[in-house]
């Protein structure tokens, strides 16, 4: 498959055929490998500087694995992740981990759970200053200065620097995590369900903070989420994942107004409406596909209302559709005009 | 004029009469002072022993947990083999390796090393289990993504998460060391007279005749029991004090 670059500026990140397979071993003494779980399989997309790409899907669809493989938190099984580092394309999957350290200031991650992502035995100052200490980017009063400025920027009081994470609420802890990720002025941030663990009122604050910081610092986000309303609010483009594959990728407006893949439609129909009179029209039944035991054809076929024989036999490729979107569905083109109600 | 806290004065009209608080042994040594002097060796064996145990357990357990995979498997199986050895025969064998003409000091260090060779496995397991669990915590992943070195992740992020466990595990190994030294010396494989330790003192109680006629020679046992209990209580107390999640 082939995704052509139409845009003239170079993408900050090009993901080509990224795969992460986890081996499954048999029980017993010899532990032979009996299969693989294709947690993320043949992921392709481009990410422009300053863009926010949403990565959505059900639990177990491989969003987090994809995000972590891109940052080399886990080593991908195959594929390329080309980061445009100071106009110098670097393949993150091939690079030795010693050279990776130099690239760390360029790409960072914000974690889902603000309670486990901060070391409970370090003060806020130690947590936020650690990146600078590791990379020897500042010391002494300059270090303290940058920590204070960063804390102010994310809405924390610098005088709280000597406190430990347990003294803060979930939203404040997430701000500490954001401060730690941003203090080295990275270009790329992977937000792994960054607001999912927060209260709805706090979610809004953190999302607004992320958007403000994006404008101020020119950040590029990969925003992993399962909450579609959050995605709609913050993302420029959305990639929908199912069973380890991207099945549709398009601009946020296109995805929400005119979803092409039946799974995207089903996912959107599952978003609860605040209007109590509106009945839920859930069209999705069955369980999410097991990435360790996928059907031979389209992974979504067993749950799909529109499946044909072809769907059950051949895996659909992510193909470019006439309006510049990418959909992996044998029946996708015929669905373009159907708009979900509401 | 001499002042005595308590004692006998001019017993049998002898001016140099003595009083043995815990009685004497067969050579007429004061048992009480010998128990006090014996405490030096019996207690320090435990303390020096845990230093060696600490380094062995932390390093081997740390490697096992952090590296994982085959290394982990190999180390864990080795620990099982060491634990499966019957302790007493192994001590006998290792004790017999030490030449008979070694000075008491050398024998003393030899014993400590023998004891810690057996003692590190427990700590290594604790360390390995904890590192294995904490390695996958988000803050450890975050540190890795920040570009932190392995050493920094281990010493700055992982180990501080279970120092309380290490302290407790170590404190609880001390009684084992003390008992080990006592058993070895009692069997005549560890320290030998003229060195005084609690185990050496108990060598006099080898036969029933002695126990029946001179029961005070068993008094070192009381000291051993009290010391072991004290270290256990200390371990419990430290655990409660160091555990951040216990209710205060």
Short summary:
The complex is a heterodimer of chains A (342) and B (248). By secondary structure, chain A is α/β, with parallel strands linked by helices. Chain A has helices at residues 63-70, 97-103, 124-134, 140-153, 170-182, 200-217, 228-234, 252-257, 262-269, 309-313, and strands spanning 13-25, 33-47, 52-56, 78-84, 89-91, 107-110, 188-192, 220-225, 237-242, 245-251, 319-320, 326-327.
- Poorly predicted runs of chain B are none
- The backbone outline of chain B, from C-alpha atoms, is elongated
Distance N to C terminus of chain A: 34 Å
- Unreliable runs of chain A, pLDDT <50, ≥5 residues? 1-7, 334-342
Q: Give the overall average pLDDT of chain B.
A: 81
The CATH architecture classification of chain B is: Orthogonal Bundle
From the helix content, strand content and strand pairing of chain A, which structural class follows?
alpha/beta
Strand order of the largest sheet of chain A: 6-7-8-3-9-10-12-11
User: What structural class do you assign from the helix and strand content of chain B?
Assistant: mainly alpha
Helix content, binned percent of chain B: 55-70%
CATH fold-level label of chain B: MetI-like fold
SSE string of chain A: EEEHEEHEHHHEHEHEEHHHEE
User: Major sheet of chain B: size, sense and barrel closure?
Assistant: none
Order of helices and strands of chain B: HHHHHHHHHH
**Number of helix segments of chain A?**
10
Strand content of chain A: 15-25%
């Amino acid at each position: 498959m082939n995704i052509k670059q139409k845009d003239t500026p170079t993408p900050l990140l090009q993901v080509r055929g990224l795969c992460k397979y986890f081996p499954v071993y048999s029980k017993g003494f010899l532990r032979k490998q009996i299969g693989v779980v294709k947690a993320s399989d043949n992921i392709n997309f481009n990410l422009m500087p300053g863009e926010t790409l949403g990565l959505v899907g059900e639990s177990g669809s491989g969003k987090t694995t994809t995000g972590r493989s891109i940052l080399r938190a886990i080593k991908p099984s195959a594929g390329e992740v080309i980061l445009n580092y100071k106009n110098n394309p670097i393949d993150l999957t091939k690079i030795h981990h010693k050279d990776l350290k130099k690239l760390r200031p360029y790409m960072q991650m914000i974690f889902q759970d603000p309670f486990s992502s901060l070391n409970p035995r370090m003060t806020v100052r130690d947590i936020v200053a650690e990146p600078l200490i590791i990379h020897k980017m500042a010391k002494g009063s300059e270090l303290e200065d940058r920590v204070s400025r960063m804390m102010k920027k994310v809405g924390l009081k610098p005088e709280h620097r000597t406190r430990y994470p347990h003294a803060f609420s979930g939203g404040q802890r997430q701000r500490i995590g954001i401060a730690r990720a941003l203090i080295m002025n990275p270009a790329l941030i992977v937000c792994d369900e960054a607001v999912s663990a927060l209260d709805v009122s706090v979610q809004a604050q953190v999302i607004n903070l992320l958007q403000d910081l994006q404008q101020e610092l020119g950040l590029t986000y990969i925003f992993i989420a399962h909450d579609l309303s959050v995605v709609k609010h913050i993302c420029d483009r959305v990639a929908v994942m199912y069973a380890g594959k991207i099945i549709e990728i398009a601009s946020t407006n296109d995805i929400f107004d005119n979803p092409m893949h039946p799974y995207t439609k089903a996912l959107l129909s599952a978003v609860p409406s605040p209007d109590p009179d509106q009945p839920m029209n859930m069209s999705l039944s069955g369980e999410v596909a097991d990435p360790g035991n996928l059907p031979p054809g389209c992974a979504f076929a067993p749950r799909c209302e529109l499946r044909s024989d072809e769907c059950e036999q051949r895996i659909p490729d992510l193909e470019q559709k006439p309006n510049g979107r990418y959909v992996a569905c044998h029946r996708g083109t015929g669905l373009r005009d159907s708009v979900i109600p509401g | 004029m001499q002042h005595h806290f308590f004692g006998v004065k001019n017993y049998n009209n002898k001016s140099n009469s003595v009083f043995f608080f815990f009685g004497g042994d067969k050579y007429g040594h004061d048992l009480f002072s010998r128990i006090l002097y014996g405490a030096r060796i019996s207690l320090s064996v435990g303390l020096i022993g845990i230093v060696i145990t600490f380094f062995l357990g932390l390093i081997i357990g740390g490697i096992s947990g952090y590296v994982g995979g085959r290394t982990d498997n190999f180390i864990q199986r080795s620990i099982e083999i060491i634990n499966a050895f019957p302790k007493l025969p192994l001590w006998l064998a290792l004790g017999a390796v030490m030449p008979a003409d070694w000075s008491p000091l050398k024998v003393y260090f030899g014993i400590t090393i023998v004891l810690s060779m057996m003692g590190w496995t427990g700590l290594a397991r604790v360390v390995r289990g904890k590192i294995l669990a904490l390695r996958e915590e988000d803050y450890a992943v975050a540190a890795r993504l920040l570009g932190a070195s392995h050493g920094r992740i281990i010493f700055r992020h992982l180990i501080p998460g279970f120092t309380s466990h290490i302290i407790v595990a170590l404190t609880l190994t001390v009684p084992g060391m003390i008992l080990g030294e006592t058993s070895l010396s009692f069997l005549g494989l560890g320290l030998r007279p003229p060195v005084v330790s609690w185990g050496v003192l108990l060598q006099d109680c080898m036969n029933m005749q002695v126990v029946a006629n001179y029961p005070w020679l068993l008094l070192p046992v009381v000291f051993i029991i009290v010391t072991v209990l004290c270290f256990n209580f200390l371990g419990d107390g430290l655990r409660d004090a160091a555990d951040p999640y216990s209710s205060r």
